[in-house]
Amino acid sequence: MWDFFKRRRLVGKGLDCGKRRRTIGDSELAEALRSGWLLRSILLTGFVAGLSVLVFAGQQDEPAKKFLLCLLIFVTAVAQLRINHPETLAVNSRLCLLLGVLLVQLAAIKITLLQAAAGNIDLQLAHLLVPYSFAPLVLSVLLGRNHGIFAAVFASLWGSMLVGQIDPVFLVISLITGFIAVYVTLQVRRRSRLIRAGVYVGIATWILAAAFGQIGPVFWESPGLTDWRMIGLQSLAAIGTGIGTSVIVSGILPILEPLFKITTEISWLEMSDLNHPVLKRLSMEAPGTYHHSLAVANLAEAAAEVVDANPTICRVCSYFHDIGKLVKPDYFTENIPHGHNPHDDLTPTMSSLIIIAHVKEGVDLALKNKLNDEIVDVIRQHHGTSLVTYFHKRALQQQEDARIGGKIMNMRVDDIPAVREESFRYPGPRPQTKEAALINLADSIESASRSLERPTPQRIEDLVNGIIESRIAGHQLDESPLTLAEIHRATESFRFTLVNMLHARIAYPKREDQPSEKLEEKSAA
């Protein structure tokens, strides 16, 4: 608060503009909410309390025994998270999502069974109206297939404790349909895939229910004794519940994604639309940067496919990685008009400041336009802490020229300004993810490839190898999870893609006879 009043006084004196650069840093409170142990303990305790309410609700045999079993399963689930998914256990928002979705499915199971016990739902339909695939579908799409399998296993175990006597048929149907839901949603790039998953889950539920005698019975020797109406209702319930669950999941995903700051493959594809206002500005105000970003996207996406990174994230982040150049587009090589270079009128230090500033300006634009946090991170990391080599060498050359001139003019060496390398380095941080590292490499390779006079395959290969070796030697990839084997595969991908992008065309022969034909026609006229 005191800083606010101090800043207002400075604004009144004309010593401060009153504006502050947008930042992405978290406050202490936000960090405590994100990963604090107190909130984590509250979430775990709340889930146990919810389980106890579900177990003791209604009339069940030996509820205390079942609650004890649920507690033991809960301890196993937490241990499983600690071993296989420590990042989920450490981030409270993800833990809240995981436990909340599981509790919603268990509550839906309990409500369905209570309604059946009260006579509001036919007992022959109750088990077929249970949304077995809800938690596996939601968590598989939002957090990945391993979390979906986790949900399928533990939702089945807890659910089997809520159906009166522990029911092995319920457990088997729940497990198999959950696994099918996860398998079908391994790569959901369109919402229609969720509906398809619901169809598969519904069909699997119907087949399993028929196999275990929950549909029917059918008296084949006396068809007239078979209640075909009930079989039709049971079939409709089994398949309809699977499809309905997938429709509900498709509807709530757009709510859960921003709420828990998770971006699904579907949302990444939606963000790849080139009609985004920022990208349209880039195409109009900095067309060279726009085409450079498209080329980087092609390079990074192709490399991501061979190193087990996310190609869609690479493509989308590549589109936005250089949006900071919109502030001063004419100061970047790809946008400089022929005939005049604005850097000719600037010192190397000033030119370097303008070039480096496009990272901070890009972060500002990304935050202003509410772009995804991963896009913001790539903007910050796509140059790492690398050196602006051209202007650094130019500054060193000017310093050397000044020293030579100073000897002639009898100037002291101390009067010649020193060239500090830190002034020519990007602020970083270095790439932290595979996607950011690939974009870092693709950006440098694509930029350097424009300087090749004759882009032969051998020259392109030498260029790619040289840039990647310099990045490794400069420790720019030290903090990324890329292995040496993955870097080698990415190098081959960059070389192959670049050779195809810069391929030469056959020179078409000129039509020598065309001008003479026109002259003959004129003379004949």
Shape: elongated
The counted number of beta strands is 0
Counting structural domains, the number is: 2
The biggest sheet, with number of strands, parallel, antiparallel or mixed sense and barrel status, is:
none
Rg calc: 32 Å
Reading the helices and strands in chain order gives HHHHHHHHHHHHHHHHHHHHHHH
N/C terminus separation? 90 Å
The residue ranges in which pLDDT falls below 50 over 5 or more consecutive positions are 516-525
Number of helices: 23
Overview of this structure, please?
- The protein is an all-alpha fold and 525 residues long.
- The protein is built from 23 helices and no strands.
- The chain has 2 domains: 239 residues, no CATH class; 154 residues, Hypothetical protein af1432 (Orthogonal Bundle), CATH 1.10.3210.10.
- The N and C termini lie far apart (90 Å).
What's a quick, concise take on this entry?
With 525 residues, the protein is an all-alpha fold. It has helices at residues 2-12, 28-35, 37-56, 63-84, 86-90, 92-117, 123-126, 134-143, 145-160, 168-184, 191-211, 228-260, 265-271, 277-285, 287-304, 311-320, 348-368, 373-381, 389-408, 434-449, 457-473, 484-501, 513-524. It starts with a helix and ends with a helix.
